[in-house]
Amino acid sequence: MNEILTQEKSIYLQISEMIENDILRDILLEEERVPSTNELAALYAINPATAAKGINLLVDRNILYKKRGIGMFVASGAKEKIRQHRKEEFHQRYFKAMMEEAHSLGITGEELIRMIQAEEEKK
Amino acid sequence: MNEGLKRHIQYISLYQGKIFSIIMLGSLIYGIFLTGVMGDSAENMVRYFEVILAIIPCSLTVNYIKYQIDLCLSMGCTRRNIYLSIYILTAELIVESFAVFLLIKMIASASITADMILSFVISELISATLGVLNGFLIRRFGHTKMLLIMLILYAGLTFFALNSFSLITGFLSSPSSRLIIIGGILTIYGLTVTLFGKRTIDNI
Amino acid sequence: MENAKGLMPLQCKSVIKKYKEKEVLHDIDLTLEPGKIYGLIGRNGAGKTTLLSILAAQCPATSGAITLGEETVWENQQALSHICFSRELNPVAESAIATMKVKDYLKAASIYYPHWDKEMADRLVKTFELEPGKKILKLSKGMLSMLTIILALASKADYTLLDEPVAGLDVFMRDKFYKLLLEEYDKTGRTFLISTHIIDEASPVFEEVIMLKDGAILLKENTEDLLSRAIHISGREDAVDAAAEGFKIYHPEKIGRSKGITVLMEHGREFPSSNDLSVQPVSLQNLFIALCGDDN
């Protein structure tokens, strides 16, 4: 929470990503209550329908679930699910873009491998 | 009476009552002052006051139409309710002014004749008609153009009111002519509101 | 039946408005569904205020009708009691508003609006630090805006139309307005239609946006959906032109060999990424500029 919204991406996607980030960072724990649609809308000054869209996206992915009359909760196993999903997205999101950028700069595959190895050695 | 009209009358009465009292108080002071300055008799002071009473419907109606209608419309009042309220406003004003007129006469210990009452009511109706007419014409043609006409009309009205007794007693020698005159004034009044009112309000 | 009216849509059906011979609104068909916050954007002179006026039956349409559910709104006191039109107060010297005090204006509102919330009005007057005894003529532009906001919120009308409510407000007060609006929306689910020039700031609050161009509705769409299909493509002119083949192009800008264009895709389409091109999302303001600018 408390990240700033940007114009770069749909607001509802940003909302769902923010919640996912918080789950990964143990800011929101499994089986804990998540701020409601209206609380999110008030916090970010956005339309509640947009906040709801973001939350529903996570409900559809079984990251969150609804307890009737009480609110939205983080599902057990959510953290692992998110990590898995992001791993799958990694290729599309970061790897592909990195490859394209490297290609346009004329950085070869070998140079990339050397870069990765150097980073690993630092650790 | 529909809900909207009730609410509208409530608002108009609020505003009207305030201004009516201010005019009354003001004219009372004015009358007393003039009497003192001119060394006039109490009877003339009463006359001044009556003239003002006769002008009140005109000025209040002009004010209502010129100033208040925009506000009322902006808050969701229908045009129909505005037309209706003009009739109701005028009736209210005439009754209120009339009550004050009787009170003044009684205080001045003047005898109240039927002719006197009739002439007062007629001058009130004329005043209201002029108020409606002027109010709408000012909205349509602007303040400056109408100022001159208003001055002439007010002067005429004052003259008429001051001399109404003798003039009207002459006209109203018979009941039938009285009825004709009253009917005529009411018709003119009704037509004025309907004709001018509709065209002006619709063009806001 | 009384409350059900609040759940009926407010519609424009084939509305045309002419001033003398000039047609300023052309065949407007618009449906406002209850319980949403709508944004109305358009250039000065596009017809926003006229449209809002007609919707609130404060100005007659030349032809066409405004309906609330089954009934027409024009001269319909019942229907009108569900609508509040809060416009920029312009205290012209010869209007009643000029000499009225803030508290008198609010008192008038409390009489005309059947669901007026006096407690809310008083609270907002304090929040905005308005002096109740001050004459409206003496209020600054910002204070006038605050008064129109108080009128709109405290009216508790089912359909509340606001014409440029944030004109003259500084960034803090604008922020406060959006928060108050969302708070009220959360509590009551009232329908709001808000016209504004401060587009990007307000767009997250709008569930749907209506764009008015030259007196006609250019689009009416869910804000998020609209923005998801708007993109800005830039790069070398030939690459941009090749990639944009088949799409409708808006607002082309060129400098040297580079070119930038805005494209509105159909729903669900994705624009293929490429090394030679920068493909970026477009904010609502920039989309508006692209669609309603002079170069179309």
Beginning-to-end CA distance, first to last residue of chain C: 47 Å
Q: Tally the beta strands of chain A.
A: 3
Largest sheet of chain C: 6 strands, mixed
From the alpha carbons, calculate the radius of gyration of chain C and give it in angstroms. 21 Å
The greatest interface between two protein chains, and residues involved on each side, is: B-C, 27 and 27 residues
- Principal-axes shape call of chain A: elongated
End-to-end Cα distance of chain A, whole Å, is 30 Å
Largest beta sheet: strand ordering of chain A: 1-3-2
User: CATH superfamily of the largest domain in chain C, please?
Assistant: P-loop containing nucleotide triphosphate hydrolases
- The total number of structural domains of chain A is 2
Largest sheet data of chain A: 3 strands, antiparallel
The strand count of chain C comes to 14
Tell me the number of structural domains of chain C.
Answer: 2
Helix-strand makeup class of chain A = mainly alpha
Order of helices and strands of chain A: HEHHEEHH
Count of alpha and pi helical runs of chain C: 11
User: Rg of chain A from C-alpha positions?
Assistant: 18 Å
Could you name the key traits of this structure?
heterotrimer; A: 123 residues; mainly alpha; Arc Repressor Mutant, subunit A; 2 domains; three-stranded antiparallel beta sheet; 3 strands; 63% helix; C: 296 residues; alpha/beta; Rossmann fold; six-stranded mixed beta sheet; four-stranded antiparallel beta sheet; 11 helices; 14 strands; globular
What does this structure look like?
The complex is a heterotrimer of chains A (123), B (204) and C (296). By secondary structure, chain A is mainly α. Chain A has two domains: 11-75, Orthogonal Bundle (Arc Repressor Mutant, subunit A); 79-122. In chain A, 63% of the residues lie in helices and 8% in strands. Chain A is built from five helices and three strands, in the order H-E-H-H-E-E-H-H. In chain A, strands 1-3-2 form a three-stranded antiparallel sheet, covered by helices on one side. In chain A, a hairpin with a 3-residue loop joins strand 2 (64-67) and strand 3 (71-74). In chain A, helix 2 (37-44) crosses helix 3 (48-60). The radius of gyration of chain A is 18 Å and the shape is elongated. Chain C has 296 residues and is of the alpha/beta class. Chain C contains eleven helices and 14 strands. Chain C has helices at residues 48-55, 77-80, 96-99, 102-112, 118-127, 141-154, 171-188, 199-202, 223-228, 237-243, 284-292, and strands at 10-19, 22-32, 37-42, 63-68, 71-72, 83-86, 159-163, 191-195, 208-213, 216-222, 230-236, 249-255, 258-264, 277-281. In chain C, the strands form three sheets. Chain C has a six-stranded mixed sheet with strand order 6-7-8-3-9-10, sandwiched between helices. The longest helix of chain C has 18 residues, at 171-188. Chain C is globular, with a radius of gyration of 21 Å. The chains are: A mainly alpha (123), B mainly alpha (204), C alpha/beta (296). Chains in contact: A-C, B-C.
